[in-house]
Structures are given as C-alpha cells and as structure tokens.
Specification:
Elements: H1 2-8, H2 14-23, E1 27-30, H3 31-45, H4 47-59, E2 62-65, H5 69-80, H6 86-89
Parallel strand pairs: 1-2
C-alpha cells in the first residue's frame, strides 16, 4: 500500500514505484488494503483522491483479491496482541 500512496501523493520516490508496478507481470492487492488506502487518501485529500486510487488501480491493472475469514482472524489476532506502539495507532 505504501508504494501506491507514494505514487498518489506524488512523493519523491513515486516514479520508482510506478515503474516497478508497470514492469510487473501482474499486481494484486487485497480488498482490505484497498479500504485502508482509501481511508488514508481521503483523510488527507478528500474523496477526489479516492477516485484517483480507483483510476490508478484500473490503469495499472492491479487485481483485487478477497480476504478470507481465516486471514481476517489472523490479522485481528495480530492487532489485538501485545505490540509496542499499537496503542498509538488506535
């Protein structure tokens, strides 16, 4: 997700990431990551940036992959477990 955010926020290393994505034989992203990226983008730049994400995913031919219940439970367990700095993220 960080690479896509760097591209859409036009950060200094954006071109590097855009080239890597363009040269990849295929790119996939989970729908959970899509939701998280949308939240980050729209909190910084409004809904228009969310539309830029959709356009970028389509243009870059990034396939969205589902998240299984098992994957969600595993991520939830990681989130709920002890972790330095986790409280800062909430």
């Amino acid at each position: 997700m960080s690479a896509i955010l760097a591209i859409l926020f036009r950060e200094p290393d954006a071109e590097h990431y855009a080239t890597a994505i363009a040269l990849a034989s295929s790119c996939r992203m989970s729908v959970a990551t899509l939701v998280e990226a949308t939240m980050v983008l729209e909190s910084h730049g409004g809904s228009a940036v969310g539309y830029e994400l959709d356009a970028f995913l389509e243009e870059a031919e990034i396939e969205l992959e589902p998240v299984t219940p098992e994957q969600a439970q595993g991520l939830e367990a990681i989130w709920q477990g002890p972790s330095p700095g986790r409280a800062e993220l909430r």
